[in-house]
Amino acid sequence: MPVTIDQIKELRAETGAGVMDCRQALTEANGDMEQARLALREKGIATAAKRADRAAGQGLIHSYIHGGRIGVLVDLRCETDFVAKTDQFKELAHDIAMQIASMNPAAVSAEQMPADAEPEAVALLDQEFIRDGSQTISDRINDVIASIGEKVEVARFIRYEMGE
Predict the structure, then answer these.
(1) Which pTM value belongs to this model?
(2) Residue-wise DSSP of the chain
(3) pLDDT averaged over consecutive 10-residue blocks of the chain (164 residues)?
């Protein structure tokens, strides 16, 4: 089955992947959008793994206040200041800040979990994304890495809540 331009546009709008990557994924999936999405996600994970050893010395500090009672600062890093200024990177920072405000993780990754953390505590990267329960925060970051082509990492965060 030939892949149509409309299918490529739709997949590109959903994933943020490049036109040729979307075309290739749809061609390999015989026009099946779900299989193409999975193929692009797997490609994004592979891209993220390749970039894991790169230095992420740029980025931004994003602040988020929820209801005047909870405040979050998140330090999101990338490789270049050009990427740090993109809407996609800023949206990721906002999504992560909202996740932290909502779910109150104890640490960024499982390796950084404090010894006295509650047994049910889940690290930020392992939490289900509040806007899409089919993804974890790590998956959301990997999708952005696949789209922008740079390493992205949460360096640190802090969460404040009134009364704590």
Answers:
(1) 0.72
(2) -PPPHHHHHHHHHHH---HHHHHHHHHHTTT-HHHHHHHHHHHHHHHHHHTTTS---EEEEEEEEETTTEEEEEEEEES-HHHHTSHHHHHHHHHHHHHHHHH--S-SSGGG--TT--TT---GGGSEETTEEEEEHHHHHHHHHHHH-S-EEEEEEEEEETT-
(3) 81 74 84 82 63 77 96 95 94 97 94 84 92 91 86 95 88
